[in-house]
Each structure stands twice: as C-alpha cells, then as structure tokens.
Amino acid sequence: MYPILNLTAPIGNLNHCGHIGHIVNDFEKLCRLAHQYQFEGINIDFNMPNLLNIYEGKQLLNQLNLKPASFGIPVNLFGSKKEFQENLPLFELQAKKANEIGCNLTLCYLPPFSDNCNFNELFIQTSNRLRELKPILQEYDLKIGLEFIGPTETRRSTKYDFIHTIDGIRALIASAGLYGYGGLKLDVHHWQNSGAGILDIHHLDLEYIFYVELNDGLPGYDIFNIPEFERELPLTTGVTKITDFLQALYKKGYRGPVAVEPWNHKIRSMPLEEAVKTVKQSLDRCLFFIKE
Q1: DSSP element (H, E) containing 146
Q2: Spatial separation of the C-alpha atoms in residues 77 and 133, rounded to whole Å
Q3: Nearest residue to 210 (alpha-carbon basis) of 98, 13, 71, 92
Q4: How far apart are CA 135 and CA 141, in angstroms?
Q5: Fold observed for domain 2-288
Q6: Which helix (H) or strand (E) holds 28?
Q7: CA distances (Å), 211 to each of 25, 148, 173, 207, 260, in order?
Q8: Which of the four pLDDT bands, split at 50, 70 and 90, describes residue 291?
Q9: Domain spans, the chain
Q10: Mind listing the pLDDT tens digit for each residue in 60-92?
C-alpha cells in the first residue's frame, strides 16, 4: 500500500476524488507538495486551470517519483440522459490523457438514495450507463472505482434508498458486465457503518479493490446515527477499526493507493502545508501497522 495526497475538488464537483478540505489547482505545486512530504502518489483533476501538458506532467511525475493514482470521472451517472451523453466525449478525452500519463483509475461515488427513481429503476439506469462507459475503459486500459455510502443518516428521510453496501456494488458490477474493470473505492467509514466486517473483505476478490480511504468516527454514536460528514483523522478516536481493516486488506493482497478523507473542520482551517504534513503523519501511523 502506498500513501497518496489528494487535493482535488470537493464532493460538490463531478471530479470529486475525496479531499482533506484543501484544494490546489496548480499541478506542479501539487506534485512538489507531495514530494516534499514524502507521499508516493497524487490524485489528478484534469480540469485544473494550471495542468501541465501530458509530456511535462509525466516528466514531472517521473522526476519526483510520484504515481498518478486516480482522477474523478467527469460524467454524471445520475443526471439526465442528455447530461450523461453530452459528457461522454469529455470522459473519453480525459481517459486518453490518463492513459498517456500512466493513470489507470477513475473514481465515482454512488448516492445511497433517490427521491425520483425507485431502487429497480435506478439500478437498471446505472447499470446501462456503466455499460456505455465500458468501451472507453477498455480502449484506455482504465478501471472505475465506485464508492458506496454506508451510514444510515444519509437515507433516513429520503423517498427511496439505493446501493449502500459492498454487495450492492458487486451486484452492479456484475449487471454492467464490468468485472475486471469495475471495483471499489473503499472507505473504512462506509465499510464499518454499512454493517460490514472483516469477513466481507475476506470474501472480496482482490480484483474488486482499487482504492482505499481512511478516517475515524466520532465517539458517542452507533452505525444508525453516526454523522456522514463529520470525521477525524484515522487512529484518533478508536471508533473505527482502522488496523483490522488495513491488516485484512494487506492479507488479501491489496497494495494500492491509500488516502485520508477526514471531513474535519480543524484540518480545513490549518494552513495548507500544515494540513498536508498532518495528513501524512496520520497515514504513516496507519501504514506502520501493516508492515510485516
């Protein structure tokens, strides 16, 4: 497993990859920050205004020994049919850029609810749209990591629920014919608060696990009322089973990117470099426990 720095756009943006409350829209600055604080990879926002051209970007990544871990998918799987279709050319363009720069993963989260479509309708629509993405994924040697949202809080007052578990993601991937191309953006917060456990990781094919996010839960809650958008850095409160989670993934054979997503006001209010340093120290503590 290797630590990555994610300073891409926040969740309200289609290019969301997860974040620490800070955004850097300068590719060279992002790379140099990651190198300075000894991250091994970064996430990329292909829409950032100061993105280098492909040759320069690849050269800088190689120079600083950084891996381009992932980028946020620019198509809205859950918008109107017109919105989805109109953004397919942009996705193909970004997939081509990703392939050229050595990045083979795009990320997307699944809303765990809908107020417009029932589960069956939304499942079929999402499956069909993922099928439309498959030729692009195949052409550019790209995989798509799908994130489910586990906590009950997010769907308690909505009209319909949608996928919010590991098994839901697996079923969607099977329905879309995406095995080998589709997998999990696996957040420990969503894993634990969906009711999953170590056995669920044990039964996962390694081919499903593309990307891992860490954070810690707030004390005083259970899986039915824990807040979704308030968390701490991993190994802070002990609420979330970080070590068990990482050790199970390591035993499974996972060696991919690991990021933190704390949704934390304190980190958001820190100066950028202090936040980056704090996040890296947190990741180092977590990854220390999985060394053989």
Answers
A1: strand 143-147
A2: 10
A3: 71
A4: 10
A5: TIM Barrel (3.20.20)
A6: helix 27-36
A7: 22, 12, 16, 11, 11
A8: low
A9: 2-288
A10: 999 999 999 999 999 999 999 999 999 999 999
